[in-house]
Amino acid sequence: TRGDFMEIRVLKYFLTVAQEQSFSKAAKVLNVSQPALSKQIKDLEEEYQITLFNRTTRSLSLTEEGRLFKEQAKQIISLVNRTDSYLKNINILVVIFILVVVKVKQIVLS
Q1: Is 53 helix (H, G, I), strand (E, B) or coil?
Q2: Is the dihedral of CA 25, 26, 32, 35 positive or negative?
Q3: Where are the alpha helices (DSSP H) in 1-110?
Q4: With 0-12 CB in 10 A as exposed, 13-18 as middle and 19+ as buried, what is 37?
Q5: Phi-psi category of 60—alpha, beta or left, where left has phi over 0 and alpha has psi -120 to 50?
Q6: What is the pLDDT of residues 61-74, one digit of tens each?
Q7: Phi–psi pair at 21, nearest 5 degrees
Q8: Is the Cβ–Cβ distance between 59 and 68 less than 8 Å?
Q9: The predicted structure's pLDDT at residue 100
Q10: Contact 41/53 with Cβ under 8 angstroms?
Q11: Interatomic CA distance for residues 103 and 108, integer angstroms
């Protein structure tokens, strides 16, 4: 429903369909069923009242809205990936800091 957050997973689904230009190929890449993947994309289109793909029996291509959405989706996924790396690096730094503090305490107390 409108107002809910868009799931990163659905953005990845969309980008994979756009890349593969096929729901069945994208479903294989994503290891999901083709009907489930199609439903996710259809739900996305209905939620935002846009058509992302031109669908024919023989081909699948992005609409103009789909091309614009693809660029936004790529930026969002990139930001999520950078944020994930940043947070993991912070966790590593915290662990290193704690280990250094523990070692310094051992040296001071010995």
Answers
A1: strand
A2: negative
A3: 8-20, 23-30, 34-48, 64-109
A4: buried
A5: beta
A6: 999 999 999 999 99
A7: 55, 35
A8: no
A9: 86
A10: yes
A11: 9
Tokens of 52: 């992302």
- Digit-coded pLDDT (tens) for 11-56: 999 999 999 999 999 999 999 999 999 999 999 999 999 999 999 8
Q: Which two tokens stand for residue 72?
A: 């936004």
Q: Are strands 60-62 and 53-55 parallel, antiparallel or unpaired?
A: antiparallel
- Count Cβ atoms within 10 A of the Cβ of residue 17 and give its class: 0-12 exposed, 13-18 middle, 19 or more buried: buried
- Compute the distance between CA of residue 27 and CA of residue 80 in angstroms, rounded to an integer: 22
pTM for the model: 0.77
CA distance 41 to 81: 22
Q: Residue 60 is encoded by which pair of tokens?
A: 């699948």
Tokens of 8: 């990163």
Which has the higher per-residue pLDDT, 92 or 60? Answer: 60
